[in-house]
Design a protein that fits this description.
This protein has seven helices and five strands. With 175 residues, it is of the alpha/beta class. The chain has a single domain, classed as HUPs (Rossmann fold, 3-Layer(aba) Sandwich). Strand 1 (2-6), helix 1 (10-22) and strand 2 form a beta-alpha-beta unit. The mean pLDDT is 95.
């Protein structure tokens, strides 16, 4: 069965794609991440992911629009729920793309991160799936996080030092 896999970056995609392939899914990658700041970081993550997918034979659909203003407008409405809003934006984008491509299910590489709120990730994925008539496949991939780090280092993939948004960048560097 085909699965649209929302990919936040190449390092998180390494273990995630292997896992879903082991489960029997044919992976269609999708890069949609308007949260990434600054624009140079967005480009670097996108380009690293393109190279990785090309080398691994993974089809990748890339949304090149950089809708930072729309993203900020949404998350700034309630800063206490900014991560949930970010999940919603990206997972709705992935669900919409899966429906558009006639792919029955979707998931996300965000599920590998021990730094994400998995309960909210699940809720937003399921809601997005219902909205667009596709199934959200949640797999708790955190057990593979260390392996994804090792794989990405071995492949010499660019590894970013923060989640992606301007707020996580501030949290990472303001100590």
């Amino acid at each position: 069965m085909k699965l649209l896999l929302h990919m936040c970056c190449a390092p998180c995609s390494t273990y995630s794609t292997e896992h879903f392939r082991r489960l029997g899914y044919k992976i269609q990658g999708y890069f949609y991440n308007p949260n990434i700041h600054p624009y140079k970081e967005f480009q670097r993550r996108r380009d690293t992911l393109k190279d990785y997918c090309n080398n691994e034979g993974i089809q990748l659909e890339v949304c090149d629009s950089y809708d930072l203003e729309d993203y900020l407008h949404i998350v700034m409405k309630d800063m206490t729920s900014r991560c949930r809003s970010c999940y919603r934006i990206r997972l709705e984008g992935a669900a919409r793309q899966a429906a558009k491509m006639d792919i029955p299910c979707f998931s996300t590489t965000l599920a590998i991160s021990p730094y994400q709120n998995h309960e909210l990730l699940c809720l937003e994925g399921e809601e997005a799936g219902k909205k667009y008539g596709v199934s959200f496949i949640y797999e708790d991939l955190r057990a593979g996080y260390r392996q994804s780090v090792d794989i990405s280092r071995k492949l010499e993939l660019y590894r970013q030092p923060y989640c992606g948004c301007i707020f996580s960048e501030k949290e990472r560097y303001k100590k």
